[in-house]
Amino acid sequence: MFAWLHPGPKLPAPIHQAFSADKLLAAYRLEGDDDAWLVAAKSGLVRVASDGTKTPLCAWDEVERAAWDGQERKFTINPINASPTQCVLAKPTDKGERERLDQLARTLRQQVERAIVVRRDNVPLGGGALATITIRRRSDDSLYCLSLIEADASLNEEQLAALKQAETQTKLSVGLATQED
Q1: pLDDT at 31
Q2: CA angle 50–51–53, rounded 5-degree value
Q3: Which segments of the chain have a pLDDT < 50?
Q4: Which residue among 7, 99, 129, 142 has the highest number of C-beta atoms inside a 10 angstrom radius?
């Protein structure tokens, strides 16, 4: 049984019905957002309107960084190659709500940590370019490789070859297939 289903006000029916029990991990009300809720689902973070309409914010494996400001009750989610999203949560009015808020904060941290990086390699490519190669986990537990490049310009052929070699080594280190397989 989930902590947010225990004492305190229950989730509004449209919010609860928008998810099957195995996909809804934790949820809490958003501040001043027409009774919308922030929901941590198995697939990612979702905003759910009071009528049950779901707006996906990001999949867990798309999060580069996430931060929780407990004083402001604000989550800041930094997706890969996208602008940050900030979600301010309503002030808890009782112990049950406080427990649901704490459960959501823990769940967000756990899901981001679970998905964000299975392995990370920082690889200099020459000419000041640096690649961060990560192996990430999708919600279905499949793994994939993602390379982020820090460089002022396009990569030359030597840098591209170094990147490809580094990606292959990183994939092999976790048992992922490479193009040569």
Answers
A1: 93
A2: 100
A3: 1-9
A4: 129
Which tokens go with 59? 């999949």
* Alpha-carbon distances of 43 from 39, 84, 151, rounded to whole Å: 10, 19, 32
| Cα→Cα distances 33→37, 71, 96, Å | 8, 19, 20
Give the pLDDT of residue 6: 41
pTM, two decimal places: 0.75
Domain 13-115 grouped into CATH 3.40.50.360: no
Structure tokens at 34: 């027409």
